[in-house]
Amino acid sequence: MQPPNIFLNNNTQMPLIGLGTWQMKHQTCIDAVKKSLDLGYIHLDTAEVYMNESEIGQAIKDFSREKLFITSKVAPDDLDYYRVLAACEESLARLETEYLDLYLIHWPNSKMNLPEVLKAFKKLYDEGKIKAFGVSNFTINHLKETLEITNQLNLPLSVNQVEFHPRLYQKELLDFCNQNNISITAYSPLAMGLVFEDKILTKIANNHNKTAGQISLRWLLDKNLVIIPKASSEQHLKENLDLNFKLSEEETKEIDNIDESQRLINPRFAEFDY
Cα 173 vs. chain centroid, distance in angstroms? Predict the structure, then answer.
């Protein structure tokens, strides 16, 4: 079953459900990607720092590139004009593809020359090496600064990929992105497994004969977020696609109120207080 698409603000189509590959390496990564593609996934999320682009490139060799949606991200250490251009070429080589469907700034960095970095993304975009541009882990203030420049460059800022799950309901950020036609991709949508321990999600899951993870994913989709849960077993890959059910308004409100502002991905260099 192939997931439905959304249209990004530059009319690029992006599948609502993808496969996250953080911490997947070697044969485990290759096997998981192949299994996911066999099950109907076409959206794969990777990054320079994941060090698995070569494995993904190997896994997709027998699949039609035109049918796939591949996201990668430039590392924080590569945020200058020439390094962005070089990093993209290196990712393309490892993935054995001529273009990326979406290329993101992986983390904001207050020391970078943002106008020059964005000019590099504009060059890649104009050359067709990236079909859409986005960012990851950006706060509202980061986004405001970026939009000032991208609007001048005529470079659509299409996506902000952030940690988002019932324990970290970033409503203010979601509202800002909706107002500015920026799509959010939710990483760690299962809160690194913590959703399975949540009593409210478990109760709702029992009502629908689903797992707490599926309830969390459905809640995110209902808010028009793209989701990229990580999974390697066939059972979990199937479960993460099996989301064709409805949450009631009451159930949605219950999940909305879970929010514990529990950020699980918070490295020392992060700028979440900006």
Answer: 15
Count of the separate structural domains present in the chain: 1
Instruction: Identify whether 264 is part of a domain.
Output: no
Q: Which of 139, 161, 152 is nearest to 74 (CA)?
A: 161
Task: Calculate ∠ Cα 38-40-44, nearest 5°.
Answer: 90
Number of residues that this document lists for the chain: 274
Residue-wise pLDDT for 220-242, tens only, equals 999 999 999 999 999 999 999 99
Give yes or no: 50 in active site: yes
Q: In this structure, what CATH number is given to the domain that contains residue 13?
A: 3.20.20.100
Q: Which domain holds residue 151?
A: 5-256
Instruction: Report how far residue 272's alpha carbon sits from residue 274's, in angstroms, rounded to the nearest whole number.
Output: 5
CB 51 within 8 Å of CB 256: no
Write down the pTM of the prediction: 0.97
Looking at residue 3, its pLDDT comes to: 84
Can you tell me the distance from the alpha carbon of 213 to that of 60, in angstroms, rounded to the nearest whole number?
Answer: 27
Question: Who contacts 260 (Cβ-Cβ below 8 Å, separation ≥6)?
Answer: 167, 168
Q: pLDDT tier at 205 (50, 70, 90 boundaries)?
A: very high
Q: Which of 50, 103, 169, 187 is catalytic?
A: 50
> Can you tell me the distance from the alpha carbon of 74 to that of 14, in angstroms, rounded to the nearest whole number?
19
Q: Considering the domain boundaries, does residue 271 fall inside one?
A: no
